[in-house]
Design goal:
By secondary structure, this protein is an all-beta fold. It has a domain at 1-48 and 62-125: UDP N-Acetylglucosamine Acyltransferase, domain 1, CATH 2.160.10.10. It is 0% helix and 29% strand. The protein contains no helices and 30 strands. The protein has strands spanning 9-10, 15-16, 21-22, 27-28, 33-34, 39-40, 45-48, 67-68, 73-74, 79-81, 85-86, 91-92, 97-98, 103-104, 109-110, 115-116, 121-122, 127-128, 133-134, 139-140, 145-146, 151-152, 171-172, 177-178, 183-184, 189-190, 195-196, 201-202, 210-213, 218-222. The chain has an eleven-stranded mixed beta sheet, with no helix packed on it. A nine-stranded parallel beta sheet has the order 2-5-8-11-14-17-20-23-26, with no helix packed on it. The chain has a seven-stranded parallel beta sheet with strand order 1-4-7-10-13-16-19, with no helix packed on it. A hairpin with a 4-residue loop joins strand 29 (210-213) and strand 30. The two termini are 36 Å apart. 42% of the residues are buried.
């Protein structure tokens, strides 16, 4: 544990691994599990419990702890909620926000000011750029790229529904790419190795290797062989 951690608030029930570095003004709530070699920068808040509205349909949190894998970094003023999982070597950028029951895979980067809502699953080696919003109940598979200010949504009714309504997040398949400022409507699936151009509004599923652009988004061609992920590793 670092000796230089002014104003650190560390719960006695938190578990801290070897060689963990704390910045100034960090808050670590009850039950948080921090792996070896984790870096926690100034002002980060770990293990926060959600404050839900009385009308919220979110599931109860339960007692699952926040777990941060070895070698991960939680950057300045990021907030990571109780019951989230941060994979080994992942980076949660400055002022980013990861809510309860969400999982961030190994080697994934969540950019500055991005928000990962509750019950989201993000795979390994994903690149989420600045100011992205990944809505609740989305799934982002391995090696996906999400450009700055892209947005996903999960409620067609915009909160005009009863308890039987099921929120539907996005499904982003392996190695697809979402351009900056794109908007994905509830429940859409973007296929493996597909490409969504900047500013596109995606209102229908995108096939694997589909190259989509426009408002609403339309497939204009197929992603070329030379642009597939395997050529860039």
């Amino acid at each position: 544990m670092s000796d230089a951690a002014p104003n650190l608030v560390l719960s006695p029930t938190a578990q801290v691994g070897r060689d963990v570095t704390f910045g100034a003004n960090v808050v670590v709530h009850d039950g948080v599990i921090i792996g070896d070699g984790v870096v926690i920068q100034d002002g980060a808040i770990l293990g926060k419990r959600p404050k839900l509205a009385p009308t919220s349909g979110a599931a109860p949190l339960g007692d699952d702890p926040l777990v941060i894998g070895a070698g991960a970094a939680i950057c300045a003023q990021a907030v990571v909620f109780a019951s989230a999982r941060i994979g080994e070597g992942a980076i949660v950028g400055d002022q980013a926000f990861v809510r309860e029951r969400s999982t961030i895979g190994a080697g994934t980067v969540v950019g500055r000011g991005s928000a990962i809502d509750n019950d989201v699953t993000i795979g390994d080696r994903v690149r989420i750029q600045t100011s992205v919003y990944i809505t609740g109940f989305s799934v982002v598979e391995d090696d996906v790229f999400v450009g700055p200010c892209a947005m996903t949504t999960n409620d067609d009714t915009m909160n005009r529904h009863d308890d039987s309504y099921v929120l539907r997040g996005a499904l982003l398949r392996r190695a697809c790419r979402i351009g900056g400022g794109a908007v994905l409507t509830p429940g859409v699936e973007v296929g493996e190795e597909a490409f969504v151009a900047a500013g596109t509004v995606v209102t229908a599923d995108v096939p694997p290797r589909g190259f989509v652009m426009g408002v609403p988004g339309r497939v204009v061609r197929e992603v070329r062989d030379e642009d597939l992920l395997e050529r860039w590793r």
